[in-house]
Amino acid sequence: MKIETKCLHEGYKPGNGEPRQLPIYQSTTYTYDSTEHIGQLFDLTASGYFYTRLANPTVGAVEEKIAALEGGVGALCTSSGQAASFFAILNIMKSGDHFISAATIYGGTVNLFAVTLKKMGIECTFVDADASEEEIQKAFRPNTKAVFGETVANPALTVLDIEKFAAIAHKNGVPLIIDNTFATPVLCRPIEHGADIVIHSTTKYMDGQAVQVGGVIVDSGKFDWTNGKFPEFTEPDASYHGLVYTQAFGPAAFIVKARVQLMRDLGSSPAPQSAFLLNLGLETLAVRMEKHCRNAERIAFFLNQCEEVESVNYPWLEGSKHKELQQKYLPLGCSGVLSFVVKGGREKAVKFMDSLKLASNVVHVADIRTCVLHPASATHRQLSDEQLAAAGISPGMVRLSVGLENVDDIIEDLAQALAAAKEN
Ligand SMILES: *Cc1c(COP(=O)(O)O)cnc(C)c1O
């Protein structure tokens, strides 16, 4: 099946006389005829549902769909994208371990990696994603256990050279984890380029309608956990009577371990209702992504010609720094998110934002409705103009998430707001 078909048909296949739409199994628990059967479920020797923190049929159908979309052997839905990043790291590492991440990633992930994981004894070194293999190699240590990056970085909108990162990770015997939130499997499937683990904030395009917060981890099933660096996968787990994950679950060792250890102990599970809403979004993901891209391309082209605009950042634009990487990894387009700098700095950008009539001013991105954010007065508010410059954010920068409205209506709104800002 092609991706559009998978979006609609993977994960849930109703039998004769069963509901056409995925049912919401709003139940915390499941009944069994014998105590022995329940004992086998706890030992992981029988498969089946027993408690919704660990697995639920509605959530399970969505996991199966996302695994199919990314080309993985299994997936685990979490209550947020943050929980997905956290679990992906913690499933591989413990106190005393180290990993490497591209520096251009989502701000919430930077906090998780640089502050909270550090408190837990897991250290992260941030590297320039555009650095050479030799430069990045210097960041490796004997205790390095993974490499992390974002396909299209939020909010920098840089494109990651996934194959370069996969080659460096594999040369060092560690997995590559890719946050594929902005690209979605419609525009890029990182596993096809060598990624071992893919994560998402499903809150963004996968949902698309701004109705649920969620995350997901997908396991490619391709990484060799038996290479000696990952004893938690190859040595007996005392909490399951000495079970060895690589022996019991083969290529699905990573994703089963994440579920039965981390979801069991930390419990960041999504509600069945949220999984149902996420599935509604996934059904239309392929058609939505195509339209987001086409609209954003028209708008990037328009903004690039506006005299009120200093610069436009969108990898698809001719002459953009990552045009080649975009053509290689995102040939169908690079999502609906772009950023641009309004001439005249902070004051003009604020006036522009406040003059918009159609686009809404929200702390969200990747919605079906066009929305904008002014980083200097929202997400990066605490920073001085000098600090903003160091973070690569100009005071006049606006992040624009292009929605599915008629593109001429969006352009008209942007044009009138730019004119109003100029007059002021
Ligand atoms: C939003 C986002 C996250 C965090 O996800 P939540 O669902 O908000 O917890 C992680 N990575 C990227 C790229 C994001 O845009």
UniProtKB/TrEMBL annotation:
One of its GO terms (molecular function) is pyridoxal phosphate binding. The modification N6-(pyridoxal phosphate)lysine is found at K204. The keyword NAD does not apply. InterPro entries: Cys/Met-Metab_PyrdxlP-dep_enz (IPR000277), OAc-hSer/O-AcSer_sulfhydrylase (IPR006235), PyrdxlP-dep_Trfase (IPR015424), PyrdxlP-dep_Trfase_major (IPR015421), PyrdxlP-dep_Trfase_small (IPR015422). It holds the Pfam family Cys_Met_Meta_PP. It comes from the Bacteria. One of its GO terms (cellular component) is cytoplasm. Keywords: Lyase, Pyridoxal phosphate, Transferase. Its cofactor is pyridoxal 5'-phosphate. NCBIfam families: OAH_OAS_sulfhy. Belongs to the trans-sulfuration enzymes family. PANTHER family: HOMOCYSTEINE/CYSTEINE SYNTHASE, O-ACETYLHOMOSERINE SULFHYDRYLASE. This is O-acetylhomoserine (Thiol)-lyase.
